[in-house]
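Q: Could you fold this chain for me?
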Amino acid sequence: MDAIGWGALIAGSALAGWVDAVIGGGGLVLIPLILSVAPGLAPATALGTNKLAAVFGTASAAVTLVRRVRPRFTPFYVVLGALAAGTGAATASLLDDAVLRPVIIVLMLAVGVYVVFKPSFGTEEGEPLGARWRSVVALLAVAVIGFYDGIFGPGTGMFLIMAFTLIFSQSFLRSATMSKVVNTSTNLGALVVFAIGGHVHWQLGLVLAVANIVGAQVGARTVLGGGSRFVRYALLSLVIVMSVHLSWQQIVS
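A: Sure. Below is the predicted structure, expressed as structure tokens.
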């Protein structure tokens, strides 16, 4: 790659880190960019290299958010998320993307409609479910969404935020903080599988990781400054962008 290609990738990785830190979906920015600037890379290697950058960026955003926001959390979410994502990545070749896309589009639109017509959702703390069931339901949600992240991926952060907000009746800001911690573990689980398969370009990935961290730090501070209201608008924006993106892929595939 020439200097222009490197510059485009580094800038794109920083933007992807910001997007991931705010709401998730940075892969929509970085993966197509890697494939276009470095067409010699196999698609699986582009995915694995993106995961390498995303692990560092999401982890740095998680640290910044956890320092300011005290989430309801348990280490089991982290372990289960990594295992579920690794399992999803290992079985990714068994499912056709064209089958998953319509389901994800419908789910995202349902999320958007719910958030639009329930303005109070995610803007204030409420009474959570009983502690006994709360943890069980949250673990189930982490397992399902973690598996989805490994097998397909787009919108993982958004689905985690919605799940934690529903289960714990808490603000979007607190849920966003929890989602970054879990998303770090799901990225790591998928990365391990890609690395075992030899689908990671380590030199490129580590350079992009530095840029991703910079973007993620700016994104984390954007979330803290904007609060739950900002996360709500970012979530709705992601629903629109991803629905259009996936619908277009469904049409042309």
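A (continued): The chain has a mean pLDDT of 86.
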